Amino acid sequence: MLPAIRRPTLTDVAKLIFVGAIWGGAFIFVTIALNDFGPVSIATWRVSLGAVVMLFIAMLIGQKFPRGLRNWRNIFVVGCLNSAVPFFLISWGQQFISSAESALLMAMGTFFSLVISHFTSDDERINKSRALGVIIGFLGVLVLVLWDMIESGLGSLHGQLAVMIAGCSYATSSIVARRLTHLPMISTSASTMLSACLYMVPLALLLENPLPDNVDNSSLFALVYLGVVATALAMTVRFFIIRANGAVFMSLVGYLVPLFGVIWSGLYFADAINLQTLISLSLIMLGIAITRRGS
Description:
The protein is an all-alpha fold. It has one domain (10-208, 216-293). 77% of the residues lie in helices and 0% in strands. It has 12 helices and no strands. It has helices spanning 10-33, 39-60, 69-93, 99-105, 108-120, 128-152, 157-177, 185-207, 217-245, 247-250, 253-268, 275-293. Helix 1 (10-33) runs antiparallel to helix 9 (217-245). The protein starts with 9 loop residues before the first helix and ends with a helix. The model has no long low-confidence stretch (mean pLDDT 84).
């Protein structure tokens, strides 16, 4: 029997902030890795390194791996929608937009998940507060998209759409992931990463060179961060947070990812924070807050 969840302590809050900071910083490291690697290769290295580390952790703590054709069919779907597709789309989209903008546009997944949950579950129905929050959040996304179109035309639109679709892919994967909640979380997450490797490794070998010559050390470090820290470590800490404090508490990370994405980008890139970024961040954070209040 699983232990009952408890009220979050300061340590639990620190863990949540830690995960939000890690995921918010991932967008910068994608930008750095793009200096030497293509988007398919970045996604491939991320899922491959993440799979190796999570497989090691699962074996270290003695978690049994999933069995049964039905479980593995769902694992392959989650691996595609939760790792392979979004990791590639984020890397591809960030060739055209900034890391701060990517972090904000990923919030589309938070609002999209509320919409699809309304039609796929009985306990996540949209009420007035959630509807208002979704509308305000969408307005925050539109500020970024339309402002960029006014300033630079349609040049960055395909990058923005790619990142938004990545966020929606994460949200869609959560529907299928509900069918895996009876399985051990770390070994199952490792299995989804492994399945994502089976999608991405052949594509990387076919479309790009995942082992280019004369790679800068900063790009290699970025790949290690994305695979080991932003994927394996953050997913493991996420597991312990959910087990101790529940999924509702963990969902508050939705506030932190866009916030840290903007903060880290502002610290790393001098021109990352501008008026439309601040307006968009404010609307997205307000929209998330209102949807949480309606939960």
